[in-house]
Structure formats: structure tokens, C-alpha cells
Amino acid sequence: MIHAHMTAWFLALVLFFVALGLHKSGKEKGAKIVQMVLRLFYVLILLTGFWLLFSINIDLMYVLKAAVGLWVIAMLEMILIRTKKNEKASVLWIQFIVAVLLVLYLGFSLPL
Ligand code: HEM
């Protein structure tokens, strides 16, 4: 399940940047399709993440890891929406970078 989880979040990050790139180059239709696929990946991340969470002896650090994971997903979605509306997303970008670094740190440092 850990591999499914890692594949899911890795592909989600790739799809996120693909969607942004398509939007920036004016390909709205493509961007929309990629964003829909991306939302499917959010579900996969959530399913695998909660699966992992409930298959271990939960302690606070894992719950924190999961919360930061949710924060990352929220930022991905909000950045895409703001960018689509041509609104500023710099505060969201900062949060995104902090959350990703934190989730990677927590994810890889916690023993499974
Ligand atoms: C985009 C968001 C996310 C990223 C980048 C991410 C990243 C990671 C990473 C790097 C690991 C460690 C893999 C390893 O040890 O080999 C991991 C494990 C884990 N993730 Fe996520 N994750 C995300 C979202 C979530 C969500 C939403 C949840 C819960 C609802 C979650 C729950 C877990 C749990 C319970 C583990 C196993 C404990 C651990 O080794 O840290 N993750 N994740």
C-alpha cells in the first residue's frame, strides 16, 4: 500500500504541473481534463493514506503527517482554481512549498 500511496502522490504532483502548464499555454480544454484526472488521484492518495493510517498503531506524528498531506491536496486544488481565474496565488504557493517539504520530511522520517 505504501507503493500505491507514493505512486499516487507522485503522479498527482506531475499532473498538477501539467495542468498548470496547459493553462499557461492557453489550452483550457486539456487543462480541464488533466485537472479531472488529478482529482481522481486525490481520491487515490486519500484512500491509500487513510489505509496506511489505520493499518498502523496511530500516534500523533502519523496523524500530523496525514493532516499535512491533506493540506498539500487543498493547496494543489486552490492554486489551480486561482490560476484559472487569473487571480494571485502567491500565498498559496508559499503554503504549498512549506506543506510539501513538511510532508516529505514527516513521511520519510517516520518509520513504517
Ligand atoms: C500530496 C500529499 C501527500 C504526500 C506528498 C505524501 C507523502 C508521503 C510519503 C513521502 C510517505 C512515506 C513513504 C515511505 O516511508 O516510504 C507517506 C506515508 C504515509 N502517508 Fe502520505 N502523503 C500525502 C498525503 C497523505 C494523506 C492525505 C494521508 C492520510 C489521509 C497520508 C497518510 C500517510 C501515512 C499514514 C503514511 C505512512 C506513515 C509514514 O511512513 O509516514 N498521506 N506519505
Automatic annotation (TrEMBL):
Primary site of residence: membrane
Q: Source taxonomy lineage?
A: Bacteria, Bacillati, Bacillota, Bacilli, Bacillales
Membrane-spanning residues: 6-24, 36-54, 60-80, 92-110
| Location in or out of the cell | Cell membrane
* InterPro entries, per database record: UPF0344
> What range does the record give for the signal peptide?
none
Protein family: Belongs to the UPF0344 family.
The Gene Ontology CC terms held by the record are: plasma membrane
* Alphabetical list of HAMAP family matching this protein: UPF0344
- According to UniProt, the name of this protein is UPF0344 protein SAMD00020551_3935
